[in-house]
Amino acid sequence: MKRYAPWLAGLVAVAVVVGAFIVRSGNMYCGTTSLTPEVLEQAEALGARYLDHHQRHDGRFVAAADWRDDTDVEAHDHSIRQAAALWALARAYRRTPNPELRQAIDEALAFWRDHTTSIGSRTWTVYPDEHFGYVGTSAALALTHVELIRASPSDAAASKKQLQRHAAQIREAQRDDGLFWSAQRVDTGEPFGHPAAEPDSLALLALVSAAEVLQAEDLRSAALDAALAGHRRYVLEAPVQSEHETADYFPAAAAAWFSLADHSGLDDDRHGAWLIDQAVWVTETQKIRGKAQSGKFFEGIVLAWEWGQRTGDPRARQLSCMLDIGLVRYISRQVGHPLAQGSAQAASESDPDFAGGVTGPPSDSPIRLEYVQHLLSAVGSTREHYSDGG
Description:
mainly alpha
């Protein structure tokens, strides 16, 4: 692992007063916002610092760490989690460029290059100890290159080339009905398997984002087909007993819907309507207030809030309440943050090397890579889109 990143040393503690009063909103209670720019900025800096500090020598990130005895727990490792963490780090780098983060990103990309195969215009990866590749991994790596292009458009030739190759592989995995085969063979990259909610949503977002930065109409057309098919499969036709698939589809799909709605404006408001409808459904059904597993939902909620503000949808207030309460509680699970409580506070006092990690229930559970990735995505999007809850 790396030594403590020097760029964090100058961070100062932030004093926060949570909730001066409580008001009733729908079926939930809403406090005054404490999602100040300082709170969000420090949460993002700490999360990025954790990934930088907990990167292995081969470029991968520690999948899980037990803060009580300073040991790594690899049972939770998976290629999609690794690639998604790299994507989150690239997003943080785009907002706050610094050489330490760029070095960490480059080292992770070098790892993925060592596990990449290319045929023709396509590139796919197979993670060590996995017997085939995943379209979700390809999508997360594509999204990483999208963020690097956005961070430095004038110096992005290599990322554009890699993005084109990953996008070609994702298109190869798209079925005639618009959904995606979830896996790909090691030697040929041939897609197989069956559609699944999380990889389908990641592939959708990758196509939407690639189409935007590459200005590729063929990718945009494929993304529109995927959006329609995914909404039909995971929202309209999802049986009650499979609501977890609807929930798993929401986080990345929400970002895709927002981008599509933003591109179309009010001339075609279906994607914006899907975004708000599903964000409200998440707040009402998933019991997400501050639970470690629910961090993945907050980015979609903040995007839905912004679209609701733009369109005058009164449900934006309900979404604002969830952010003011739920995201603050989620940040309180971050080790080293001034809002840290419970096991996060105990971990802060136990070992400062775990600063930026996110704890989960029960109190003795390890810090998991996906919890950190979800927090980075949530606070980063909130920094960009949310201001005082409207």
